[in-house]
Amino acid sequence: MPEDEFAAIRQRMVDTQIEARGIADPRVLAAMRRVPRHRFVPQGLWDQAYNDYPLPIGEDQTISQPYIVALMTEALELKESDRVLEIGTGSGYQAAVLAELAAEVYSIDRLASLAEQAQKVLGGLGYKNFQVRVGDGTLGWPEACPFDAILVTAGAPQVPRPLVDQLALNGRLVIPVGDRFSQTLTRIRQTNEGVKYDYLGGCRFVRLIGAHGWKAGGVDF
Ligand code: SAH
């Protein structure tokens, strides 16, 4: 399929799945109209890349449903000058959306094969304002903090303390918190009066595995 056909399908995706469901931030909508999501999934799945569901990206991991990417991105309230940390690089798609909206994106995945592939795709598309590293993202990225925004794209049993500590004043952390089967999308805001919480609805992510997440092993889904 030629690129302009993918672009047309992508515009329709944003109209029907994202804007129609209430995502209103014009910068988020514009970013999602620009980023070529198909390039972040295996080529055999390119024709499904704009459908309303997650897709497998190898290593038993998934690229999130487009609407969830939009919802989490909007919840971060990004400004152009912001420095953002993402835990769970996966395919790199969410990192690309963040790179469209913020000054600097730092992204961590525990699986080297995914981090390397994501880095290749992001670089190939011309993104320059990002860094990807392999490691346990529940520890954050202490050398690069504080962050204006932190996004966790895997489901956590609780909010990892190091991530809250690495937020700037007025910084926002968006993270799915719950059990293995369902989580609540949670926003934590660092304010002068302490940490504030908002709850943004239910979701279902693969597990966040690490020192402040789930233990490795056990049954995944
Ligand atoms: N944001 C991704 C989807 C992430 S899927 C995208 O746009 O495609 C969740 C990812 O979190 C997986 O790649 C998994 O390897 C990673 N992950 C799980 N626990 C992690 C941890 N402690 N640190 C870093 N990455 C982790």
Helix content: 25-40%
Ends apart, CA distance between termini: 32 Å
Largest sheet: 7 strands, mixed
Shape: globular
Quick structural gist:
The protein has 221 residues and is α/β, with parallel strands linked by helices. The chain has a domain at 52-203: Vaccinia Virus protein VP39 (Rossmann fold), CATH 3.40.50.
Describe the overall structure.
The protein has 221 residues and is an alpha/beta fold. It has helices at 3-19, 26-34, 66-75, 93-101, 112-124, 161-165, and strands spanning 55-58, 61-63, 83-87, 104-109, 130-134, 147-152, 167-178, 183-191, 194-203. The chain has a domain at 52-203: Vaccinia Virus protein VP39 (Rossmann fold, 3-Layer(aba) Sandwich). Helix content is 29%, strand content 27%. It has a seven-stranded mixed beta sheet. It has a two-stranded antiparallel sheet with strand order 1-2. β4 (104-109), α5 and β5 (130-134) form a beta-alpha-beta unit. α1 (3-19) runs antiparallel to α2, α1 (3-19) packs across α3 (66-75) and α2 packs across α4 (93-101). It is globular. The structure holds S-adenosyl-L-homocysteine (SAH). Residues 61-64, 87-88, 90-91, 93-94, 108-111, 114, 136-138, 153-154, 206, 208-210, 213 line the site of S-adenosyl-L-homocysteine.
